[in-house]
Amino acid sequence: MKEGFFTAKFSLILSVLFLSACSTGEIVKAYDGDELLVEQLAVLTAPENIVVLSINGNKMKNYLLSGINVSYGLKPGENLVVFQYESVWAKAIREDKDAPRSVKISSEPREVLVNAKAGEHLNFKFLNGSNVREARALAEAFTAEVIDSKFNVVAQSAEVGVYAASNVKTKLAKTSDLQTLDALKVLWGTATADEKKSFLAWAFQK
Q1: pTM of the predicted protein model
Q2: Do the Cβ atoms of 80 and 113 come closer than 8 Å?
Q3: Residues 6 or more apart from 56 whose CB is under 8 A from it?
Q4: Do 187 and 117 reside in the same domain of the chain?
Q5: Based on the domain organization, do 130 and 47 belong to the same domain?
Q6: How many domains does the chain have?
């Protein structure tokens, strides 16, 4: 889909909303281990229409409503965030009272690899449709960026699996000169919760 398609055909709203940790309320713990102080974390806010599905393989709570802002606490370093676009639109009232009164538009899951820094406040930047037709078109090929408080782009979305595959290659490259047991220890220490579960399931099947 060409870039000019959206600007020529749609009136789109650039959704950029920054909320400080004190104004968003609770910060969701999105990391393993002991709870850290706010100043030790990076805070990623998912604004209206962005639903975070998982962070570093840990499934995030579904808040049911796409129209709320949720802030996630990230440990400094690389964080793999899987998310999707979601919006709900009212339907015209028809004679059939049992017909659905709204329609939900969702994109396929996307992912970003965020290299977070302590004390950093991050948000999603994306185009948002002003009606259901525009929302459907956006959802078909949804893209988003993660930006910092100075509007610098720190991460670009991709299809799910792109960054995960890159991470595996990097981990293998770092362990290529180690003995097998030492290499396994290094990989285990950097694996996500889902990766550890998958490995254990595979190991006990052998």
Answers
A1: 0.69
A2: yes
A3: 30, 31, 32, 79, 80, 192, 193
A4: no
A5: yes
A6: 2
To 10 degrees, what angle do helices 162-174 and 180-190 make?
A: 140
pLDDT in tens, 95-139: 666 667 788 999 999 999 999 999 999 999 999 888 999 999 999
Long-range contacts of the stretch 195-200 (C-beta < 8 A, 24+): 195/57
Structure tokens at 40: 């030790």
> How far is CA 76 from its chain centroid?
16
What lies within 8 Å, CB to CB, of 62 at 6+ separation is 51
> Could you give the CA distance from residue 152 to residue 186 in angstroms, rounded to a whole number?
33
14 and 113 both lie in a single domain: yes
CA 174 to chain centre: 26
Cα–Cα separations (whole angstroms), residue 79 to 15, 66, 82, 98, 164:
22, 22, 10, 44, 10
